[in-house]
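Lecture notes, structural biology module. Today: joint structure prediction for complexes of two components.
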Amino acid sequence: MNAYEYAAVHRNTFVNELKSLLKFRSISTLTENNVETAQTAQWLAEHLHHIGLNSVSIFNTPGHPIVYGEWLAAPSAPTVLIYGHYDVQPPDSTPDNPWLSPPFEPTIRDGNLYARGAADDKGQIFAHVKAVEALLRTTDKLPVNVKFLIEGEEESGSINLDSFIESHKDLLRADVCVISDSHILATDRPVIVYALRGLVYTEIEVRGPKSDLHSGAYGGVVYNPAQALCEIIAALHNPDGSVNIPGFYDRVRSIPETEREALKKVPWTDDEFFQETGAPAPWGEPGYSRREQIGLRPTLEVNGLVGGFIMEGAKTVLPAKALAKVSCRLVADQDPQTIFELLKKRVAELTPSAVTSEVRLLNSGNGAIVNIQSAAIEAAAVAYERGFGARPVYLPEGGSIPVVATFQKTFQIPVLLIGLGLPDDNLHAPNEKFKLDHFYRGIDTGIALLERLGTMTPETVRAQ
Amino acid sequence: MNAYEYAAVHRNTFVNELKSLLKFRSISTLTENNVETAQTAQWLAEHLHHIGLNSVSIFNTPGHPIVYGEWLAAPSAPTVLIYGHYDVQPPDSTPDNPWLSPPFEPTIRDGNLYARGAADDKGQIFAHVKAVEALLRTTDKLPVNVKFLIEGEEESGSINLDSFIESHKDLLRADVCVISDSHILATDRPVIVYALRGLVYTEIEVRGPKSDLHSGAYGGVVYNPAQALCEIIAALHNPDGSVNIPGFYDRVRSIPETEREALKKVPWTDDEFFQETGAPAPWGEPGYSRREQIGLRPTLEVNGLVGGFIMEGAKTVLPAKALAKVSCRLVADQDPQTIFELLKKRVAELTPSAVTSEVRLLNSGNGAIVNIQSAAIEAAAVAYERGFGARPVYLPEGGSIPVVATFQKTFQIPVLLIGLGLPDDNLHAPNEKFKLDHFYRGIDTGIALLERLGTMTPETVRAQ
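The predicted structure, tokenised, for the full assembly:
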């Protein structure tokens, strides 16, 4: 029995194991879940030990623990660092859009596994874990050296990861990095992501009176902080949808014509757009295609808005304060700290003198661009062909995996961004799912990737 | 023992009775409190019966019940309709501004009675109840006929009151109406309110994608509903702070020069403003004094704002929708329904085509102006002198008591707006209080008012 056969035979077991992992409420942004998040790390570490890795450790950080596991018994072969995260987004059920099955009770419907984290990222990292298991169980060895690095803070900005990598360079050193934390276009259209956006996540708080006031008694003589917040936020965009912060676009790279042409061949159609989003109409910065708007242009988004009376009914209150969660997606070369400072300056300028404002940085990360002309990228393409039966396309992606820039900077190695999910997996929304067929194909892709990389020298693999 | 002496002797009893009334969580905007709100009406009705009214009824409405009680044994004397409300605002404690004692456990500190509703309006209406009791217990009769009308929906827009009044005109007919639901400037500076603002309370909801989206995966191609809401709200004001809704000011009465001069004599100083509000700086529509801005000019206020992720930490979500609670304070002659239509039209015009919006009317009420040159108003001034030891000043007030316009329209009678509270009573905010000294003075004022009105003919009293 080869590794692929082993994976095929053990599908049910693998799915049940993944369900166990998905039951943990490892919501990294909510401190009330800290204990369960730590238990998730513990479960994962035990599981990595169970599949046959030589050495597994849990590293504590000021935040959530990092799980590390290695198998290094292939001295002359390349070393593959496989990164993923075990933390998940909050469930955020709403009356309009509830979870059809509870977010932490994994449920299979129509060939999909529904649970928070099913695709982002527990299911995707687990496919690689199972690929390694299949190889180890059937050949008693691996074609390459493997290092797993699975963190618990990706959804809260990986705030302790960079310093961990910096202080554990020797432990983590590798010839290539593999990340499955994105989605492909369709089962027969896998995607290698070559650009990721960076992130600056902030809170803008506007304060006025010392406490909530009666809007009748004081409306008209006290500047309303919720009104002021809306005015500030409205002024952060130009009428055409571009961001109105002086200097914001200074370091944004222009998109080469060849790249624009290549992207035109993979259109994101209006039909797909409406199907995925349900938005009333398309929208975006003029002069750029949808793929460019998402992957290669920076944005500023309001992620949350709160102030005053927000319950059922009416309360005539003039709120003491109002708060917005505002984040910018950045592209390669934009420095998150610089953008934060520019935003801070702009908000200060926009703040009326009858209120005060504060901009707080919650987290940030760099964008990245990957050179797609490398042997390692070709190995990923071949692996995709084995797993999904099709050659991948190369696309920029709108999300942020800040550690990609860190790996590039620290180790000077290619980063293979080979997603296994689908566009409608409902990441960061109710009813997140992972197609089981993609879980199985992902395991095969993982096996094929390690086999292919095992035929190459470390030098060939690390060439960017 | 005369009525004043009776009131002085029974202070402790009266305060304990008021505490019993304040313990009820009669929050009219929250349906979960419906049973307790009905129990409050029951308690009040029993209490009105207990003090010696001839007839007491509870009228059910589609919302909260109305309590009515009457004593009509003075055939040739004027009839006084005393209006108040037993419902209260939600407690709305915040981590920054918590209740120092629980809102529904009335607590005395430094001569103040702290509880939700202490001043607005349970404490104030109860002063009149106790005035009637003091007269009945010491003289076995009243100098006038008295009708109490105490509703349970003032804080949710008195939505069933107008139709109740319309269908119970004969029951409620009176020569003058008395309302204590406002505040005075200081113990030695009582205030007769001669203008009240109307109200239109709405919700503006903006919707975009069918569900919350990942702000990385879709930020840049989907119009963000929270951003759109901020843009709409920002555009509802002009840079100078006036309301930017075409037609909004069409029916706003200009302020006569004599009235402006009179108001100048009762300045609302910067010191007082800062003391009361804690706002960083004064603000307001240019060309108007603070008293004019509050009492004689309409406004548009954001009472609440909510959308997307509003919990601790960071969630990179592009929200499916965002909602604002927006209300306008109106002045006499502005029609609430017309203003609602104008707001709706303006929001529709401002809504970008890539999102949808809806403006919902939650409640509304008319503003009012009272002629201060009447015998009934002079009776109120004399009563204030007896209770507070000082002549009142005449001021416009920023809040809304829509029933004033209804009483004026329905019965063509003077409405005496004689508040008993203080500016720092924290209405609609945590730590609402009522100064016990004002409760006692309010009872004396109530006794004096009924005595004075009893010396007048019904015709004199009803002259406006």
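Point to remember: The two ends of chain B are 35 Å apart (CA to CA).
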